[in-house]
Amino acid sequence: KIPDFIANSSGNGGNNGNRNKTVYGDNDFNTGFKDKDGSSLKVDIPKMNGNNYNQWAQTVRLVLDGKGKLGFLTGAIAEPAQGDPLHKQWKSENSMIIAWLVSTMETGIGKPYMFLPSAKDVWEAVKETYSDIQNASQIFGLNSKLWHAKQGDRNVTAYYNELLTLWQVLDLCYDDNWKCAEDSVLFLKRQENDRVFMFLAGLNKDLDEVRGRVLGKVPFPSLRETFAEIKREEARQGIMMGKTPRSYESEGSALATRNPYKGKKSDEVPRCDYCNREWHTREDCWKLKGKPPNWTPNWKKKKGGRAYLRKRSINRKKTQVLEKSMNKNHHHVA
Fold first, then answer.
1. Last residue of a domain, one of 173, 208, 240
2. Domain Retrotransposon Copia-like N-terminal, which positions (predicted)?
3. Which of 60-74, 82-96, 239-253, 270-284 shows the lowest mean pLDDT across its residues?
């Protein structure tokens, strides 16, 4: 599961004075980071539009944690007492973070939060309003995509990345607080095993052998280890069998008059992952999408051909009879 950062990167564990000294001082707040060589990394924050809270919130956490300011959102960096020498600086930092948070939202969404007293208040108010945690509709939609995900015409990496992205978004829909750390570890291991099964189930049949090897391993491999092994097998097949990445153009019909797969080796023949038949893909599957409007049954074509041959045979016989008759008349006249 994507970790939900709950403390800032400064490791604020001491008294308020020490904590404030480690956090304050970076008044030039922005989303840029500089490496030792002076090169900068710009982090793009997705504008919060009301439908992408999870993605927005995770990016905000990462940026603020990287700047040592996440404690302003979690409450770990508490407001110093009035009269404390650091109170003014805390207020300045707090206002700067509020302004930045509002700037990462669309105008109509961020405007109401400008008048809240602290960055923590803004953070919690936005979460209560837009969080997708336990959103049954979104959770169902994500799971539905996962259940139907197949490798199809894609390579293994593209298929794996699709699943990985869906799993990460799904994890953000939950906010589980485990009372027992051991139970949490056991649950996460079982969850990872289930995801390995789902990944393996959607692979194409030409990877059956390596799929069997993975399922027979003890101890059972992690998701990343499984992907690495499947990827190596895909690369091996590409080298040993001369396979190329799957990319078959749709002809609009599984039985097009010009067969684009004619002359291909058996291991290069496309297979539909919907009806499990060869010589076409899901995009061309009649069972899934129906027959094209201009399709003509084979028996009609054959019937038309037989009628043409029969008519041609009859005409030939008539010609032969006529020739014989003319020859007789010619001999009689002579």
1. 240
2. 46-81
3. 239-253
Judged against a pLDDT cut of 90, whether residue 90 lies above it is answered with yes
How many structural domains comprise the chain? Answer: 2
**Torsion sign, CA atoms 222, 228, 232, 238:** positive
In a domain, 46, yes or no: yes
- DSSP state, residue 263: T
Q: Computed from CA positions of residues 131, 137, 141, 142, in that sequence, does the dihedral angle turn out positive or negative?
A: positive
More confident residue, 204 or 172: 204
Contact 250, 281 (CB under 8 A): yes
* Residue 72 burial (C-beta neighbours within 10 Å; 0-12, 13-18, 19+): buried
Is 44 exposed, middle or buried, given 0-12, 13-18 or 19+ CB atoms closer than 10 A? exposed
* Residue 216, domain extent: 136-240
H/E element, 32: strand 32-34
**What's the pTM value of the predicted model, to 2 decimals?**
0.52
Asked if pLDDT for residue 249 goes beyond 50, the answer is no
Task: Estimate the crossing angle of helix 16-23 against helix 87-103, to 10 degrees.
Answer: 50
